[in-house]
Design brief:
By secondary structure, the chain is of the alpha+beta class. Helices cover about 30% and strands about 40% of the residues. The protein has a single domain, classed as Nuclear Transport Factor 2, Chain: A (Roll), CATH 3.10.450.50. It is built from 3 helices and 7 strands. Strands 1, 2, 3, 4, 5, 6 and 7 form a 7-stranded mixed beta sheet that branches. Helix 1 packs antiparallel against helix 2. The longest helix has 17 residues.
């Protein structure tokens, strides 16, 4: 997978929140994907669990704002961004890992209480 293709998936992820469009999320993730958000919490395993997780996130009205360049290496892309909800923001770094079909098979979100403002 080319870096430009990985970056396009990141851009679609941001778009999903802008449009509150769960279909974009469903299209991004493989059926057997895993999401750990934040790292150290329960893993959302499989597309049904991932969709349920993101339906909640999208319904909150949260918006995403990229805060730096994407970093591509191997089958992964890491990117810094903020979740914006009203006057609150959370600084996060996500890492997406892709399969050969270009679907996200694993997502890890790195953030904690110290990243709120």
């Amino acid at each position: 997978m080319e870096p430009s293709e990985k970056i396009a998936v990141v851009q679609r992820y941001v778009e999903a929140f802008d449009k509150q469009d769960i279909t974009i999320i469903k299209d991004m993730f493989a059926a057997d994907a895993k999401v750990e958000d934040p790292v150290g919490t329960d893993i959302h395993d499989g597309i049904d669990a991932i969709v349920a997780f993101y339906e909640n996130a999208l319904s909150s009205g949260a918006k995403l704002r990229l805060t730096g360049a994407c970093r591509c290496a191997g089958s992964a892309v890491a990117f810094p961004f903020q979740v914006v909800m009203g006057d609150n923001t959370i600084d996060i770094i996500d890492v997406f890992y892709f399969n050969d079909a270009g679907k996200v098979v694993d997502m890890k979100a790195y953030w904690g209480a110290e990243n709120y403002s």
